[in-house]
Amino acid sequence: MLSRQLLRLSANASKARCARPMAIPRLARPSGTQLVGRFYSTFNPKDQPRVRIGSTAPNFTVDTTEGEIDFHKYIGDQWVVLFSHPADFTPVCTTELGAFARLKPEFDQRNVKLIGLSTEGVESHKAWIKDMEDVTTGGAKFSYPIIADSDKKVAFLYDMLSEEDFNKIGGGMVPTVRSVFVIDPSKKVRLIMTYPASTGRNSAEVLRVVDALQLADSKGIATPIDWSSGEDVIIPPSISDDAAKAKFGEFKTLKSYLRTTKSPIE
Questions:
Q1: I need a surface site. Which of 79, 92, 127, 187 has the fewest CB within 10 A?
Q2: Burial class (CB in 10 A: 0-12, 13-18, 19+), 205
Q3: Which domain does 98 fall in, by range?
Q4: pLDDT of residue 209
Q5: What confidence tens digit (pLDDT) does each residue in 49-104 have?
Q6: Counted domains in the chain
Q7: Does 18 participate in catalysis according to the annotation?
Q8: 224 shares a domain with 197
Q9: At 189, is the secondary structure helix, strand, or coil?
Protein backbone atom coordinates (compact mmCIF):
# COMPACT_ATOMS: atom_id res chain seq x y z
CA MET A 1 0.00 0.00 0.00
CA LEU A 2 2.74 2.42 0.99
CA SER A 3 4.70 1.55 -2.16
CA ARG A 4 1.70 2.38 -4.41
CA GLN A 5 1.24 5.73 -2.62
CA LEU A 6 4.90 6.59 -3.11
CA LEU A 7 4.68 5.70 -6.81
CA ARG A 8 1.60 7.97 -7.24
CA LEU A 9 3.36 10.84 -5.46
CA SER A 10 6.42 10.40 -7.66
CA ALA A 11 4.29 10.37 -10.82
CA ASN A 12 2.38 13.49 -9.78
CA ALA A 13 5.65 15.29 -9.02
CA SER A 14 6.98 14.38 -12.47
CA LYS A 15 3.82 15.74 -14.13
CA ALA A 16 4.09 18.96 -12.14
CA ARG A 17 7.69 19.41 -13.20
CA CYS A 18 6.73 18.89 -16.83
CA ALA A 19 3.83 21.35 -16.52
CA ARG A 20 6.07 24.14 -15.16
CA PRO A 21 8.05 26.18 -17.67
CA MET A 22 11.73 25.42 -17.62
CA ALA A 23 13.56 27.76 -15.27
CA ILE A 24 15.93 30.15 -17.05
CA PRO A 25 19.33 30.24 -15.40
CA ARG A 26 20.04 33.61 -13.79
CA LEU A 27 23.01 35.21 -15.47
CA ALA A 28 25.78 36.50 -13.30
CA ARG A 29 25.49 40.28 -13.27
CA PRO A 30 28.76 42.15 -13.50
CA SER A 31 29.49 44.43 -10.59
CA GLY A 32 28.06 47.91 -11.11
CA THR A 33 25.35 46.95 -13.57
CA GLN A 34 21.60 46.85 -13.53
CA LEU A 35 19.06 45.09 -15.72
CA VAL A 36 17.10 47.55 -17.86
CA GLY A 37 14.48 45.74 -19.92
CA ARG A 38 16.40 42.91 -21.56
CA PHE A 39 19.73 44.67 -21.62
CA TYR A 40 22.43 45.46 -19.13
CA SER A 41 23.33 49.08 -18.49
CA THR A 42 26.86 49.40 -17.13
CA PHE A 43 27.80 52.10 -14.66
CA ASN A 44 31.56 52.16 -14.80
CA PRO A 45 33.07 55.05 -12.81
CA LYS A 46 35.69 55.43 -15.53
CA ASP A 47 32.91 56.23 -18.02
CA GLN A 48 31.35 58.95 -15.89
CA PRO A 49 31.70 62.41 -17.49
CA ARG A 50 33.61 65.03 -15.55
CA VAL A 51 30.93 67.71 -15.28
CA ARG A 52 32.64 70.95 -14.36
CA ILE A 53 31.82 74.63 -14.66
CA GLY A 54 32.36 75.44 -18.32
CA SER A 55 31.90 71.90 -19.60
CA THR A 56 29.13 71.01 -22.02
CA ALA A 57 26.13 69.58 -20.19
CA PRO A 58 25.82 65.88 -21.06
CA ASN A 59 22.86 65.25 -23.34
CA PHE A 60 20.25 62.54 -22.79
CA THR A 61 16.82 61.44 -23.97
CA VAL A 62 14.40 60.58 -21.20
CA ASP A 63 10.73 60.35 -20.21
CA THR A 64 9.28 63.15 -18.11
CA THR A 65 5.90 64.12 -16.73
CA GLU A 66 5.45 66.19 -19.91
CA GLY A 67 6.57 63.51 -22.37
CA GLU A 68 9.89 62.41 -23.81
CA ILE A 69 12.58 65.06 -24.19
CA ASP A 70 16.00 65.40 -25.73
CA PHE A 71 17.73 67.53 -23.11
CA HIS A 72 19.73 69.75 -25.48
CA LYS A 73 16.62 70.36 -27.57
CA TYR A 74 14.72 71.14 -24.38
CA ILE A 75 17.33 73.79 -23.50
CA GLY A 76 17.00 75.33 -26.94
CA ASP A 77 18.12 78.97 -26.73
CA GLN A 78 17.25 79.41 -23.06
CA TRP A 79 18.89 78.93 -19.69
CA VAL A 80 17.97 75.84 -17.65
CA VAL A 81 18.00 74.93 -13.98
CA LEU A 82 18.27 71.14 -13.66
CA PHE A 83 17.82 69.90 -10.11
CA SER A 84 17.45 66.47 -8.53
CA HIS A 85 15.53 65.41 -5.45
CA PRO A 86 16.01 62.20 -3.42
CA ALA A 87 12.54 60.66 -3.77
CA ASP A 88 8.87 61.30 -4.47
CA PHE A 89 6.38 61.72 -1.60
CA THR A 90 9.06 62.97 0.80
CA PRO A 91 8.58 66.08 2.93
CA VAL A 92 11.64 68.21 2.11
CA CYS A 93 11.37 67.51 -1.62
CA THR A 94 7.69 68.45 -1.61
CA THR A 95 8.52 71.88 -0.16
CA GLU A 96 11.37 72.37 -2.63
CA LEU A 97 9.61 71.53 -5.88
CA GLY A 98 6.60 73.51 -4.73
CA ALA A 99 8.81 76.55 -4.03
CA PHE A 100 10.36 76.35 -7.50
CA ALA A 101 6.86 76.08 -8.98
CA ARG A 102 5.80 79.26 -7.18
CA LEU A 103 8.91 81.05 -8.48
CA LYS A 104 8.48 79.85 -12.06
CA PRO A 105 7.11 83.23 -13.27
CA GLU A 106 10.34 84.83 -12.02
CA PHE A 107 12.45 82.28 -13.87
CA ASP A 108 10.29 82.78 -16.98
CA GLN A 109 11.11 86.52 -16.92
CA ARG A 110 14.81 85.60 -16.99
CA ASN A 111 14.43 83.19 -19.93
CA VAL A 112 15.07 80.22 -17.64
CA LYS A 113 13.44 76.79 -17.84
CA LEU A 114 13.10 74.50 -14.81
CA ILE A 115 13.34 70.72 -14.82
CA GLY A 116 13.43 68.36 -11.83
CA LEU A 117 14.53 64.74 -11.47
CA SER A 118 14.39 61.69 -9.26
CA THR A 119 15.05 58.00 -9.86
CA GLU A 120 11.36 57.13 -9.84
CA GLY A 121 8.84 56.72 -12.65
CA VAL A 122 6.50 59.07 -14.47
CA GLU A 123 3.33 57.76 -12.82
CA SER A 124 4.83 58.23 -9.37
CA HIS A 125 5.83 61.78 -10.28
CA LYS A 126 2.36 62.60 -11.61
CA ALA A 127 0.66 61.31 -8.47
CA TRP A 128 3.08 63.29 -6.30
CA ILE A 129 2.45 66.50 -8.28
CA LYS A 130 -1.14 66.40 -7.05
CA ASP A 131 0.16 66.57 -3.48
CA MET A 132 2.31 69.58 -4.32
CA GLU A 133 -0.64 71.35 -5.91
CA ASP A 134 -2.61 70.68 -2.73
CA VAL A 135 0.09 71.74 -0.28
CA THR A 136 2.75 74.04 -1.73
CA THR A 137 1.61 75.79 -4.93
CA GLY A 138 -1.49 77.41 -3.49
CA GLY A 139 -3.65 75.39 -5.84
CA ALA A 140 -1.83 76.63 -8.95
CA LYS A 141 -1.01 74.10 -11.63
CA PHE A 142 2.45 72.56 -11.35
CA SER A 143 4.05 73.73 -14.57
CA TYR A 144 7.49 72.27 -15.25
CA PRO A 145 8.59 68.72 -16.09
CA ILE A 146 10.10 66.13 -13.74
CA ILE A 147 12.48 63.59 -15.24
CA ALA A 148 11.74 59.91 -14.59
CA ASP A 149 15.29 58.61 -14.14
CA SER A 150 14.38 55.09 -13.03
CA ASP A 151 17.34 53.61 -14.91
CA LYS A 152 19.62 56.17 -13.19
CA LYS A 153 21.20 57.21 -16.47
CA VAL A 154 21.03 60.94 -15.74
CA ALA A 155 22.03 60.50 -12.10
CA PHE A 156 25.16 58.73 -13.37
CA LEU A 157 25.95 61.29 -16.09
CA TYR A 158 25.69 64.21 -13.66
CA ASP A 159 27.09 62.41 -10.58
CA MET A 160 23.96 63.05 -8.53
CA LEU A 161 24.55 60.27 -5.99
CA SER A 162 26.23 60.06 -2.62
CA GLU A 163 29.27 57.80 -2.31
CA GLU A 164 27.22 55.13 -0.56
CA ASP A 165 24.43 55.15 -3.12
CA PHE A 166 26.80 55.29 -6.08
CA ASN A 167 28.21 51.98 -4.89
CA LYS A 168 24.64 50.58 -5.05
CA ILE A 169 23.68 52.11 -8.39
CA GLY A 170 23.47 48.69 -10.04
CA GLY A 171 20.75 47.58 -7.62
CA GLY A 172 17.26 48.88 -7.00
CA MET A 173 16.02 52.42 -6.50
CA VAL A 174 18.68 54.75 -5.06
CA PRO A 175 17.95 58.34 -3.96
CA THR A 176 19.77 61.22 -5.62
CA VAL A 177 21.31 64.01 -3.57
CA ARG A 178 20.03 67.57 -4.01
CA SER A 179 22.04 68.63 -7.05
CA VAL A 180 21.56 71.93 -8.89
CA PHE A 181 22.99 72.72 -12.34
CA VAL A 182 22.55 76.08 -14.03
CA ILE A 183 23.10 75.66 -17.77
CA ASP A 184 23.26 78.48 -20.32
CA PRO A 185 21.86 78.58 -23.89
CA SER A 186 25.19 77.37 -25.32
CA LYS A 187 24.69 74.18 -23.22
CA LYS A 188 27.58 75.10 -20.89
CA VAL A 189 27.38 74.33 -17.17
CA ARG A 190 27.67 77.64 -15.33
CA LEU A 191 26.96 76.71 -11.72
CA ILE A 192 26.93 73.52 -9.64
CA MET A 193 25.54 73.18 -6.12
CA THR A 194 25.13 69.96 -4.14
CA TYR A 195 23.26 69.52 -0.86
CA PRO A 196 22.80 66.41 1.27
CA ALA A 197 19.38 64.79 1.35
CA SER A 198 18.62 66.20 4.81
CA THR A 199 19.09 69.86 3.83
CA GLY A 200 16.57 71.78 1.77
CA ARG A 201 17.84 74.23 -0.81
CA ASN A 202 17.27 77.98 -1.04
CA SER A 203 15.24 78.64 -4.18
CA ALA A 204 15.86 82.40 -3.91
CA GLU A 205 19.61 81.70 -4.03
CA VAL A 206 19.20 79.87 -7.33
CA LEU A 207 17.32 82.88 -8.70
CA ARG A 208 20.03 85.22 -7.35
CA VAL A 209 22.89 83.37 -9.05
CA VAL A 210 20.98 83.36 -12.34
CA ASP A 211 20.75 87.16 -12.06
CA ALA A 212 24.46 87.37 -11.26
CA LEU A 213 25.49 85.12 -14.15
CA GLN A 214 23.31 86.87 -16.70
CA LEU A 215 24.46 90.33 -15.59
CA ALA A 216 28.12 89.27 -15.69
CA ASP A 217 27.66 87.92 -19.22
CA SER A 218 25.89 90.99 -20.55
CA LYS A 219 27.83 93.77 -18.76
CA GLY A 220 31.27 92.28 -18.11
CA ILE A 221 31.21 92.72 -14.33
CA ALA A 222 31.57 90.51 -11.25
CA THR A 223 29.34 90.38 -8.18
CA PRO A 224 30.53 90.56 -4.54
CA ILE A 225 29.54 88.47 -1.55
CA ASP A 226 25.81 88.45 -0.77
CA TRP A 227 25.08 90.54 -3.87
CA SER A 228 21.44 91.05 -4.83
CA SER A 229 20.00 92.51 -8.00
CA GLY A 230 20.41 96.30 -8.11
CA GLU A 231 23.34 96.48 -5.69
CA ASP A 232 26.84 97.69 -6.57
CA VAL A 233 29.01 95.40 -8.66
CA ILE A 234 32.75 94.86 -9.06
CA ILE A 235 34.81 96.02 -12.03
CA PRO A 236 37.20 93.23 -13.07
CA PRO A 237 40.92 94.03 -12.56
CA SER A 238 41.53 93.35 -16.26
CA ILE A 239 39.76 96.64 -17.11
CA SER A 240 41.92 99.77 -16.79
CA ASP A 241 40.69 102.82 -14.90
CA ASP A 242 40.25 104.77 -18.15
CA ALA A 243 38.29 101.93 -19.74
CA ALA A 244 36.22 101.50 -16.58
CA LYS A 245 35.31 105.21 -16.56
CA ALA A 246 34.37 105.09 -20.22
CA LYS A 247 32.27 101.96 -19.73
CA PHE A 248 30.71 102.46 -16.29
CA GLY A 249 31.11 106.16 -15.48
CA GLU A 250 31.86 106.87 -11.83
CA PHE A 251 33.35 104.14 -9.65
CA LYS A 252 34.93 103.70 -6.23
CA THR A 253 38.48 102.46 -5.75
CA LEU A 254 38.80 100.55 -2.48
CA LYS A 255 42.08 98.89 -3.49
CA SER A 256 43.95 98.92 -6.77
CA TYR A 257 42.35 95.55 -7.54
CA LEU A 258 38.95 96.25 -5.96
CA ARG A 259 36.71 98.82 -7.62
CA THR A 260 32.93 99.03 -7.38
CA THR A 261 30.31 100.79 -9.44
CA LYS A 262 26.55 101.08 -9.65
CA SER A 263 24.87 98.03 -11.08
CA PRO A 264 24.48 98.50 -14.86
CA ILE A 265 20.92 98.66 -16.11
CA GLU A 266 19.92 95.70 -18.27
A1: 127
A2: exposed
A3: 51-201
A4: 97
A5: 789 999 999 999 999 999 999 999 999 999 999 999 988 998 899 999 999 999 99
A6: 2
A7: no
A8: no
A9: strand
